[in-house]
Amino acid sequence: MELLFSYGTLRSKQIQMQIFNKVLSGTPDQILGFKLKSLQIEEEFGMADYVVAVPSENLEDIIHGVVFEVSSQEMLKVDQFESNSYKRVQVKLKSGRIAWVYTENK
């Protein structure tokens, strides 16, 4: 199983049903040394506002979110769901666990 840290859209039960065909259960956690940045993504019906995690120079910056356990196949589905404005990287969570998170694709 893979750990996936979500700070935004992937916490939505509706989105989870769309991607995984089930609702995930997760545990609260945080990533340190990251902050949220506004991001506009072109969607089917125009531009939409989202946020993206970006590394911060302040190691005390924190993003609150939820950690989900997903299979490798489910991670591939999330990769397809996320736009090319995001990239998947591994981070160490405040809990000490290592999880995947989607950050700004630069």
From TrEMBL:
Domain Gamma-glutamylcyclotransferase AIG2-like: 4-103
Pfam families in UniProt: GGACT
InterPro entries hit by this protein: AIG2-like_dom, GGCT-like, GGCT-like_sf
Domain of life: Bacteria
Name used for this protein in its record: Gamma-glutamylcyclotransferase AIG2-like domain-containing protein
Organism: Flavobacterium johnsoniae (strain ATCC 17061 / DSM 2064 / JCM 8514 / BCRC 14874 / CCUG 350202 / NBRC 14942 / NCIMB 11054 / UW101)
